[in-house]
Design goal:
By secondary structure, this protein is an alpha/beta fold. Helix content is 42%, strand content 10%. It contains 15 helices and 10 strands. The strands form 2 sheets. Strands 3-10-9-8-7-6-5-4 form an 8-stranded parallel β-sheet. Strands 1-2 form a two-stranded antiparallel ribbon. The longest helix has 32 residues. The radius of gyration is 20 Å and the shape is globular. It starts with 9 loop residues before the first helix and ends in a 32-residue tail after the last helix.
Length: 396
């Protein structure tokens, strides 16, 4: 039995990731921003929602799959963009993408990945989405969008909640800057984790050299850092409309926390929106996405796919999101913990754990599929504005 076989939930995978990773990498993945109120609030807001079991219902013939952005997935779930995957495991993005393909769900390639988008497209298979930021030099963005199109990515995910950088003080304490430069704390922490040093860092040094952001223009490439990363304060909805003109596939806008912004995204041509506070990593005092979700569903449900991330740790969290009208959830840290614990096998373990928990919860509630999940399963007195009589939003 391997160490990941002894991981029975996402929290166990988190502990295994913490054991394996240098401190500065683990904390970059695991922590939030400023006082870290937001990251805790995301999880507690999901936990406060309670579920009502329904007895003596035939739940045979369960179907866990669903339509996700116009195509069938084995779960209404996708792997969200996580730029640190290549530091958690050697070519961790490829490991996550292969896991998602084997599992039958979409994988989102982060712009700041250490593996090239072309290599992932060539070797991973499956459904691939590509995440970008809008840079000050718009042509650099457009060139990368064209590159993703040629590589066969089916969806473009535009992250819009990072434009001036973030205030993650723990990075400074750990000696981890942007762009990365070796420091006493980072080197010390690497030496304290010889397993990571030999299986990840030395493999990079023996093949491609020091890890770098492989999808960035040459002027911006460095290990997990970039002078160009989404820091243009002039980005507006016009930029989304221009991307819509240039991108032939599905367009998803990620990082929305207001119903009116979701409506603007759809008006600019978005096929999907992701209700997200970046996992509590950007605005510490942001509300939890699960609390914002009903208003976004009421505004754009049926006009565009509504997805949610930030705080998904259990299959029951997925159930709550679907009952409130979400079409799908995106996982971030859960997948990274799995990849850090065991590469592709660890990532598949994380997905399997969530699937099993989702199936169990679904059955306990007397439901056989996602569409049977309605606000009726929720025990709390929550605002369900805009819901159809069945409890779910009217869909396209």
């Amino acid at each position: 039995m391997t160490s990941i076989d002894r991981c029975y939930n996402i929290a166990d995978l988190r502990s295994e990731a913490k054991r394996r990773l240098p401190k500065w990498i683990f904390e970059f993945v695991d922590r939030g921003t400023e006082d870290e109120v937001g990251i805790d609030h995301n999880i507690k807001s999901l936990q406060r929602i309670k579920l009502r079991q329904k007895a003596l219902v035939d739940v045979s013939g369960r179907d866990l799959g669903a339509d996700v952005m116009g195509a069938r997935a084995t779960l209404p779930m996708a792997v969200g963009p996580t730029g640190a995957a290549g530091l958690c495991w050697y070519e961790g993005e490829l490991a996550l993408a292969k896991a998602a393909a084997a599992f039958g769900i979409p994988f989102t390639m982060a712009i700041s990945s250490t593996t090239s988008l072309d290599k992932v497209a060539k070797e991973a298979g499956g459904r691939l989405w590509f995440q970008i930021y809008v840079w000050e030099d718009r042509q650099l963005t457009y060139d990368l969008v064209k590159r993703a199109e040629h590589a066969g990515y089916e969806a473009l995910v535009v992250t819009v909640d990072v434009n001036l950088g973030v205030n993650r003080e723990f990075n400074l304490r750990n000696g981890y800057g942007n762009p990365f430069r070796p420091s006493y704390p980072t080197v010390r922490d690497i030496l304290l984790k010889p397993g990571w040093m030999t299986t990840v860092l030395f493999r990079y040094l023996a093949t491609t050299g020091m890890p770098r952001q492989a999808n960035m223009p040459p002027v911006a490439r460095n290990v997990h850092g970039s002078v160009l990363r989404g820091k243009d304060s002039r980005i507006t909805w016009d930029d989304i409309a221009r991307l819509r003109e240039r991108w032939p596939g599905k367009l998803i806008v990620k990082g929305l926390m207001r119903a009116d912004d979701a409506a603007r995204a759809v008006a600019a041509g978005a096929d999907g929106v992701v209700v997200s506070n970046h996992g509590g990593r950007n605005v510490d005092m942001a509300p939890a996405p699960i609390d914002v979700l009903p208003s976004v569903v009421a505004e754009v449900g049926g006009k565009a796919s509504v997805m949610i991330d930030s705080g998904i740790r259990r299959g029951s969290d997925m159930v709550k999101a679907y009952a409130l009208g979400a079409d799908a959830v995106l996982i971030g840290r859960a997948g990274l913990y799995g990849a850090a614990a065991g590469g592709q096998a660890g990532a598949e373990r994380a997905m399997s754990l969530l699937r099993r928990e989702y199936e169990l919860t679904l059955a306990h509630l007397g439901c056989r599929n996602r569409d049977e999940l309605t606000p009726d399963v929720l025990a709390n007195d929550l605002p369900f504005m805009g819901m159809a009589p069945t409890g779910r939003p009217n869909r396209r």
